[in-house]
Each structure stands twice: as C-alpha cells, then as structure tokens.
Amino acid sequence: MSTTLTIHHLRKSQSERILWLCEELGIPYNLQCHDRVPPAMLAPESLRQLHWSGTAPVIQDGEITLAESGAIFEYILTKYGNGKLVLQPTNPNYADYLLWLHQANGTYMPAVTSVLMARMKGDSDESPTQKIMQQRANANLHAMEHQLGKYPYLAGNEFTAADCMSVFGLTTFRLFIPSSLTEYPNIVSWLQRVGKREAYQRAMQKGEPGFEPMLSAVPQLPSQ
Known about the structure:
The chain has helices spanning 16-25, 45-50, 69-80, 94-121, 128-150, 161-166, 185-195, 198-207; strands at 5-10, 30-34, 58-61, 64-67. The protein is an alpha+beta fold. The chain is globular.
C-alpha cells in the first residue's frame, strides 16, 4: 500500500494515537514532529500554519488537511482500514465500541484538562467547578474499570480503535497532571496488555524516542 499520508505529531501529545493507529493498520506514513514551546509548553506556530486549530494532531493526505483525533480516526479507518479495528453494527459489542471510541475526547479528556487548567491558574481543588470536573473524570474511570473487568478490551474481546483512542489520557497525559491508577487494577492490566503490542511500541519509539511509556499505576516521571 502506498499513501500520501503525513502525520504532524506534537511531542508528548494526543497525536501519538494517530501514529499508533497507522502502525496497527500497517499504513505507511510520513512523520513530521513538532516540539512544544517553553515555558508554557504549547504547540508551536508551525502547527497553526497547517491548520486553524493550531495544535495536534493534524494529518495531510494529498490536498486534504484534517485535524481532530476523532475525525482523523474516522478518516483513516474508513479510507485505509479495510474493516480492521472497527466493529460492525451487527456485532453485539457495537454500542460499546462507539461509546469508548468517543468517550476519551468527548468526556474524559475535557474533564481532566479542565482540572489541569484550573490548577495552572492556582484554583483550589475544592472549588465547585474543580469538584464537578474531577467527579466527571472519576465516573469515567469507574466505568472503564467495570468494563475492563468484563472484557480484555474496551469493546469486548477484540482489540479495536477504541483502545487506541483511550490510552493517551491515562498514560502520557499524566506528565501534565500526575495521578495514580492504583484504585483501578483492571485499567492498569489493560494498559500493560496494550503496551506489549508491537504497533504501540513502534509508534512510541518513532514519536517519542527515549521516552518510557507511562503504563504503570504510579509511573516514574521523567527527570526534567
């Protein structure tokens, strides 16, 4: 297979998902990495020049430039996936697949990002807004823990794109908002399981060379 696909990856960001998805699907791609700009560690101007969103992930495929993780997943899976990593409506776990494919960026990441931004402003964790966002994040973790107590993967017995979408918020994102997953042994077991996938390891090596994926309950933060 040959494609014109280019992935623009912001280091230590959710765009790692796109590399992983392509590695799982065996899709060739060009990789362009962008470094965060200190001291705020935001995305560089080079990404804004590519897309008005100004952040990653961004892909280019011929004349098409596309942002947003969910949109990129659908684009790649539909155009290049050949039915891999998705469940069809006839599958009894189809609703689970849809839920967990969209839950990460639809609910969990907005909640924990709100907590992060509030902490950066110096807001107390006891503020009403902080409590609401943390409760929302915790509810998602409890639901995920329950799901992974029933199945080895989020959509059932089969590894799918829903797993690819969901790992970042529980691993690399903890660089920015350190947290423990000791209360969630099923989640930790799942992280260990998917972390052994060769496609995940290739993606992380290409996108984050020298970075140890944060797959344990209480990962060691890299030295500054």
